[in-house]
Amino acid sequence: MEKKTLYREHSGYTLMPFPAGQGDKYYTECLHKLDPEVARLTGTAQVPPREAVVQYYDRAVSDPDRFDFLIVAPDGRFIGESVLNELDRDARRANFRIVIFDRSHFCQGLGSWAAAETVDFAFRELGLAALELDVFSFNPRAKHVYEKLGFQETGREALPDCGDNAQDIFMALSRGRWNALKNGDTL
């Protein structure tokens, strides 16, 4: 069976599947000089070596239990990714995550757009019953995006290595809630 995919454009930006053979470009443009703020918001303590990143990328391209999409700038640079991973086909659930690696593209609505497209893909194309994610309490911008999409908080866990009161916030979105929001229902 052919793997379903997503390809969308918005204001010159593209959301597309990881193209095969681009692991080196992914490493160079997304992770090689990872912005310290992006590292903090994503919990990336240390960027793995190039070889490990390229191997991860190549596995992501071919893994039938994950869907990795690049956010590509109009000039062709890879600036982010939106991912459905940890797919449980029996329970019809997956984990969702998104990151904009290039800070110059923050606060332009790109994360909101890519997140909405990926969430819609998860429910429409993959027929998932639920999505789950986690976000750090010191990333209110991301939490706001998730709440706009309908995700609701399901729990919290302390992050002792991240400062006073830092927490990992767990969120989920059910297919029913997503569908109701798409239909304009008041919840």
How many runs of DSSP E, i.e. beta strands?
A: 8
Order of helices and strands: EEHHHEEEHEHEEH
What Rg, in angstroms, do the CA atoms define? 16 Å
Q: What is the rounded distance between the termini?
A: 37 Å
Top keywords for this entry?
alpha+beta, 8-stranded mixed β-sheet, Aminopeptidase, 33% helix, globular, 8 strands, 187 residues
Structure commentary:
By secondary structure, the protein is of the alpha+beta class. Helices cover 33% and strands 29% of the residues. The chain has a single domain (8-182), classed as Aminopeptidase (3-Layer(aba) Sandwich), CATH 3.40.630.30. It has an eight-stranded mixed sheet, sandwiched between helices. Strand 3 (67-72) and strand 4 form a beta hairpin. The protein starts with 7 loop residues before the first strand and ends in a 5-residue tail after the last helix. The model has no long low-confidence stretch (mean pLDDT 90).
